[in-house]
Amino acid sequence: MVRVGAAVCIISGSMAVAVPSFAQQPSLDYSTAHLERRLNAVRATGPITLDGALDEAAWSGAPLATNFIQNDPREGAPATFDTEVRVLYDDDALYFGVFAKDAEPGQLIVNDLKKDYNTGGSDGFTVILDTFHDGRNGYQFATNPAGAKWDAQMANEGRENNANWDGIWDVATRIAELGWYAEIRIPFRTLKFTGSDLQSWGVNFERKLRRMNEDSYWAPLPRIYDLQRVSMAGTVDGFRGLRPGMNLRFKPYAASASSQLAGRKTTGDFDGGIDVKYGVTSGLVWDFTVNTDFSQVEADEQQVNLTRFSLFFPEKRDFFLENSGIFQFGSGGGQFGGMGGINRSEMQLFFSRQIGLSEDGGAIPILGGTRLTGRQGAYSIGVLNIQQREHDANPGANFSAFRLRRDILANSDIGAVLLNKEEGGPNFNRVAGVDANFRFGFLTLNGYAAKTFSPDALLVGSDGNDFAQKAQFNYASRTWQATSSYSGVGERFHDELGFVPRQGVHNYDGRYGRYFRPARFAKWMRQTQPHLEFDVFTRQHDNSLETSYMGYHWNVNFQDGSTAEVGVNPQIEDIEETFSLSSSRGVRVHPGRYEFSEYFAFYNSSNARTFSVNTQYRTGPFYDGYRRNLSFGPSMRLNENLNMSVNLSLNDISVATGSFVSKLVTTRVNYNFNTKMFFNALVQYNSDNSQWTSNLRFNIIHRPLSDFFLVYNERRDERTGNMLSRAVISKMTYLMAF
Asked: CA 464, CA 729: separation in Å to the nearest integer?
């Protein structure tokens, strides 16, 4: 690379690619820069063979996207090594030919081959396609120099991102002397788009140069945004005669299982079922499932519960993950806060783990169901109906969800949701809600209101109302972050299709921080952010304090991708009823008002290194005693084939009713034979129940979106070594697409 004044040229062989002058200006106008990033759609003049060589004659006449611009670490500067992307299409598919220049290709970082790999941990290339050209929604496809694949659906510029979506596409890669190549083929039947004869699509490309922790884009983006900001994407003009195909998929499965409980005989079972997917329109997909099976799904990671509230476990079942963003209500749910911050789970109005799973996580058979999801004009539509079988003490139940959302203004939406659970007879639970999401530049405003309807017999002894509501604002710029919200959940708000950790409360929370990038420390520090956060719950019936959390934190992001943070968390807990910290040891917390402060520090090294470690230490008073917590997690990534990690979490707790040490060990081993054959092991030990659990999975992708799984599950008593249960499961799926 040769630098002369402000001009930058990337030399590849005899070809020099000049960076346009606007990319060199620190005052780059991002609001208009993407308008200059346009390509003309060109049909391929001959067949394209996916081999990563880009040697077909058609590539020489393909339109070229180049001159990538950094958004991190040097916002607005030319990429350290430029990327060239050529675009072609034919009757069946869209093609991207990528040359990612690199003066030191031997230094490329590639640490995974598995499907849906961690895109942030290695060098890579990602394309996003806004096929409706609405500046809101898109498909993402990513690969690394070893040809691993990752794909996702994105809606509302990243407010909903579904990385569990799987599309039919393929890629071939090759590492060369001056960089690496990728040849990508995306069939049109994988995508949804309008039926117009002449079409323009939004498109943008991202290049990750991992050893420099650098992100660059074809259509420039400010540092606070990423590829999902499709309103700032470039454009491909002039697609003609695109046909999505029949959009019909059949995916039957056959599964067999052999299981044994301690002291009982081994039992066997054979089962089968089918999933059907039909494209009703260019934007709507109708799914059907019969005798749905999730036996191959990875086991949950165990958690230690030191609170009086339910723990949140994420959904992992494919059927419920696909298009799940359609049913997202309000500003979303899940965990709030960082590693050193607020560690709680927000309410989710619709939580699919309430279907087909018991309270302890055991499977309840599903007879079948249907789902209609997608977009039609300015509307997003989601309709779901699932019939659950009778199983043990769980009666048969029918679950329904209806979601409608309409786009308004430039990038905002309003919507409504209806949920229903019927167990036969007088038992039912219904939820109705409306929400709105507005975005104006750096400012986002969200709000919702919801009401539940249940027989009075289910709410005996409950006072208060059956409403839930929330209002939230978020401001995020290059230098400031400010977010705050109010929410309330009534005592009689009874949502059997959702996740509601607390009822009868008002909640006020927020986070405020300032970003700094000090030039004097630029060699080793990328960014630092002192911030304050709070989370306060009061009881609705008398406005008395239930929980008060404050966090005073300072974190640092280093140039290599590692992070560190220190802080103190003053807390107040007003306990009205005794709850258990360790039921097996009889350690409890009695009613009373407790004030204590926790001190913490953590360090996470760069996950791009061969050896990395995540470590965290917390200490301080805990209710009427003391707590020390150590979390230590070393990882080893020898190459793209073998990844291993261990995480040890120790809680040394002493309170008035007793003392104990809680130990949780989580071990992962992933061996990737290639991009279509994988072995994964998840082995866990939990001292609270004195059990070892093992979940071993072997997976072969024998054709696109068609798998063979062999799974072994086992539980053992740590004290005696005796087997408590085990199962061997095999499953074959076969996708037929038309």
From this structure: 48
What's the rounded Cα separation, in Å, for the pair 492 and 503? Answer: 8
Report the distance separating Cα 602 and Cα 53, nearest Å: 45
Residue 419 sits in which domain range?
A: 309-514
Q: To the nearest whole percent, how much of the chain has pLDDT over 70?
A: 93
Residues 482, 485: Cα–Cα separation, whole Å = 10
Contact residues for 499 (Cβ-Cβ < 8 A; gap 6+): 310, 312, 333, 345, 347, 348, 351, 353, 354
Find, among 140, 150, 85, the residue nearest to 117 by Cα.
150
Q: How many alpha carbons fall within 13 Å on the CB side of residue 103?
A: 7
Cα–Cα separations (whole angstroms), residue 79 to 102, 207, 220: 11, 9, 11
Return the number of other C-beta atoms located less than 10 Å from residue 298's C-beta: 11
Rounded CA gap, 154 and 117, in Å? 17
* Residues 649, 602 within the same domain: yes
Q: 247: number of CA atoms within 13 Å, CB side?
A: 17
The predicted-structure confidence for 508-524, as pLDDT tens digits, reads as follows 999 999 999 999 999 99
596 pLDDT above the threshold of 70: yes
Average pLDDT score, the chain: 89
Query: Do 493 and 473 belong together in one domain?
Result: yes
Between CA 6 and CA 499 the distance in angstroms is: 55
Residue among 156, 148, 198, 192 nearest 173 (CA): 148
Over residues 39-51, the pLDDT tens digits come to: 999 999 999 999 9
Largest distance between two CA atoms of the chain: 81
How many structural domains does the chain have? 3
For range 643-657, the mean pLDDT: 95
| 735, part of any domain | no
Residue 270 burial by Cβ neighbours in a 10 Å radius (0-12, 13-18, 19+) = exposed
Q: Are residues 628 and 542 in the same domain?
A: yes
Alpha helices for 41-172 (secondary structure H): 57-60
Fill in the DSSP letter of residue 122.
S
307 phi/psi in degrees, rounded to 5: -120, 180
* 459 phi and psi angles, rounded to 5 deg: -120, 20
Whether residue 452 is found in the same domain as residue 539: no
Q: Please choose, from the candidates 419, 12, 404, 382, the residue with its C-alpha nearest in 3D space to the C-alpha of residue 180.
A: 12
Q: Which of 514, 549, 578 is the last residue of a domain?
A: 514
Evaluate whether 449 touches 422 at the Cβ level (below 8 Å). Answer: no
User: Per residue in 422-436, pLDDT tens?
Assistant: 987 678 899 999 999
First to last CA, the chain: 48
DSSP strand pairing (691-703 vs 138-143): unpaired
606 and 508 housed in the same domain: no
Q: What is the pLDDT of residues 159-216, one digit of tens each?
A: 778 888 888 999 999 999 999 999 999 999 888 888 888 999 999 999 999 999 999 9
Give CA–CA dist 205/175, Å, rounded: 19
Asked if 182 contacts 115 with a C-beta cutoff of 8 angstroms, the reply is no
Instruction: Assess whether 539 and 659 both reside in one domain.
Output: yes
Compute the distance between CA of residue 15 and CA of residue 101 in angstroms, rounded to an integer.
12
Integer Cα distance of 399 and 622 in angstroms: 41
Residue 737 lies in a domain: no
**Sheet of strand 15-18: strand arrangement:** 2-4, 7-12, 15-18
Residues 173 and 31 placed together within one structural domain of the fold: yes
Query: DSSP 3-state assignment of 32?
Result: helix
| Neighbouring residues of 35: CB distance < 8 A, sequence distance ≥ 6 | none
Q: Which residue from 201, 11, 218 is spatially nearest to 98, judged by alpha carbons?
A: 218
Position 288: which residue type?
F
For residue 176, tell me if it sits in a domain: yes
Q: Taking the CA of residue 593 as centre, how many other CA atoms within 13 Å lie in the half-sphere pointing to its CB? A: 4
Q: Are 425 and 551 part of one and the same domain? A: no
298 pLDDT above the threshold of 60: yes
C-alpha 637/C-alpha 615 separation (Å) is: 17
Domain boundary among 466, 495, 514: 514
